[in-house]
Every structure is written in C-alpha cells, then in structure tokens.
Amino acid sequence: MMSRRCADTLRDVAFVGAALLDVRVNVSLDDPLRMGAALAAACLLLLRRRWPLFVFLFTLPAVLFSDAVVACLAALYTLATFTRRRTLLAACVMAFTLSDMVSWPRLDLWNTAAVITLGYTAATAAAVVFLGQLVQARRDLSLRLAEISLARDHERRLTAQAALAQERAELAREMHDVVSHQVSLIAVRAGALQVGTGDAEAKDAAATIRRLSVQTLDELRHMVNVLRDSQGRPTELTPQPSLADLRRLVDASGIDTELATDLPGGLPSALQRAVYRTVQEALTNVRKHAPGATATVRASYQGDAVRVTVSNTAPTRPALPLPSSHYGLVGLRQRAALLGGTVTSGPTADGGYELLLELPVEEEL
Q1: Closest listed residue to residue 100, CA positions, set 41, 60, 139, 138
Q2: DSSP 205
Q3: pTM score, two decimals?
Q4: Could you tell me the CATH superfamily of domain 243-360?
Q5: Residue pLDDT, tens place only, 144-155
C-alpha cells in the first residue's frame, strides 16, 4: 500500500514538473494572463486522480490562451484511465483540438496548414486517450486475473475438502462395519468367559478385557461421529487425559506396575497429555513385548523440566506375535519434539527396557 502511494506521488511530481517545463519553454513572462492560466493548469494536476474531468476542463484555458499543452494532455490521459464513457472522451479530444487550434483573439482555420495542424493535434489527443484506455484495460485485466486466481484457489480447496470428506466417510464406514464389529465380539466373548469360568485369575482377566473393549467401543463410536460430520461444524473430541488419569491407566494396564510421581497439577495441558501418552505407549509395549514383566513408572519435576521414566524387567515368557505399525516410539518422539523435549529408549543390563521422557517447563509454573 505504501509503495503504491509513493509511486503515485512520484508520478504526480513528474507530471507537474513536465507541465512547468512546458510553461517555461512556451509561455513568456511578459504575458501575465497566459502565464497565470498555464501555471494554474500545472498545479491542478495534483488533483487529477480525484477529479479527472474537473481538472481537464480547468486546464483547457491554458491550451486556449497559450502553447502550454502538457498539463491538459496529462489531465486527458488521467481521465481516459478512469472513465469508460467513450462519447465523453471523444468530446474531450475535440475540445482539446479546437482549443489548441484557436489563435486568440482571432480564429483562422480556413487554410491548408491549419487543416494539417488540426489533424496532427487531434491525433495527438487521440493517442493520449488510447494510451489511457490501454492502461485502464491492463488494470482491469490484472484485477480479473487476480479474481481468477482466487477462484481457482477456492475451487482447489473445495475439491480437497470434498476428497477429504469422502475419505473420512469411507474410513468411518470401515471403522463401524469392521473394527467396531470385531471389538463388540471381543467384549461379548470376554463377558461369556467372565461368567462361565471358575478360575479367579481368568475371571479377572476377562473382566479387564471386557471393560477395555467397552471403553474402546465408546471411543470408536465417537470417532465415527467425528469422521461423519460433513457440515464443517466443530466437533467435540473425547476428553483429553491428564496427570490425574495416570493411576487409572496403570491399574487398567494388566501389568504389575509401581507408580511414583510428584508432578504438580498445574502443568500445561499439552505437557500433561504428553506424559500420559508416553506412559500409555510404554506400558502397551511392555504388555506386548515383555509378557510377565513388572514395570516401574517414575515422574518427577526438577525445577525447569519434567522427567518421566518407564522401565520394565525381563520377560518371563515368550511374546506373542502381535501386529505392530512400529510408529509408537516415533510418534512419542515427535510429540516431545513439538514441546521442546526428547524421548530416549533402550535395553537395560538385566534384560529389561527403559524409556525416558524429558520435557522443559516454563519458569512461571
């Protein structure tokens, strides 16, 4: 915006300067009437964009009384860049031509030289008008191209949103028809096992499986509703976990786990979620890859950082071959990196495994 304003100011200065030079060359100081008309016309160019027709009309006396024509031609050019009335422009060309041809106070147009000069003057004024119309057309074309570009961007966004909506609908259908169905079967079979078995340990395991299956079904139903929301309205996600949910997570993990934490409750919500998801993923890995192992979760706040350690002993029986995407630790590292922290992991000397999460905390906490 500022650059355009500066360019317009420089253009005004250039036009006024050219008009004053024209006055200096073609008007004598001995004729105050002509000098006044020419200087007034040059100064009026400062108003040419605000009132182009007014400025053109009031620069005509300079052409009528003197040979200073630059100010009037500049005003005619400006008028041509703003108006779309071709009849008005033709009348202005004729007015400039006749004013320039008048030999004040005596008019003499009835000779060959006058006719040639008339044609030359009319051609000059017409060329200025054509140039102004060309600038106007170029400006209109630029605006039209900008509108087309915006329309194409909008169309691309709509296409992308339509494709995304279709993918979300397909994903929701698959989750509902396949995943939810299979989890429901797991919950039903776990309930039957819980009722039918007399073994206390097996009954407790079946109850845990059934509870987790029901919880998973609730979360799946909510995710399906989120994916099926095609109206663009914001949809409330399931409540995000916090540090207060760590104990329940550990108790429901099915692993003999010791939890020791002194983290304050005023930590940022993003940091609390990172701690929870890290412990959740670590315990899931223990359950999958180290059956029979015990785990220890220690979380502490050390002045300017949160330090969470999840370790487990060596497994007591072989791990079952379960499917894995191998993205769990990668996702934890990415989440920690977004918060300015790190995640490191590796085997321990006793055959177990340890995962360490370190996250910085703002000083005002």
Answers
A1: 60
A2: H
A3: 0.45
A4: Histidine kinase-like ATPase, C-terminal domain (3.30.565.10)
A5: 888 888 888 888
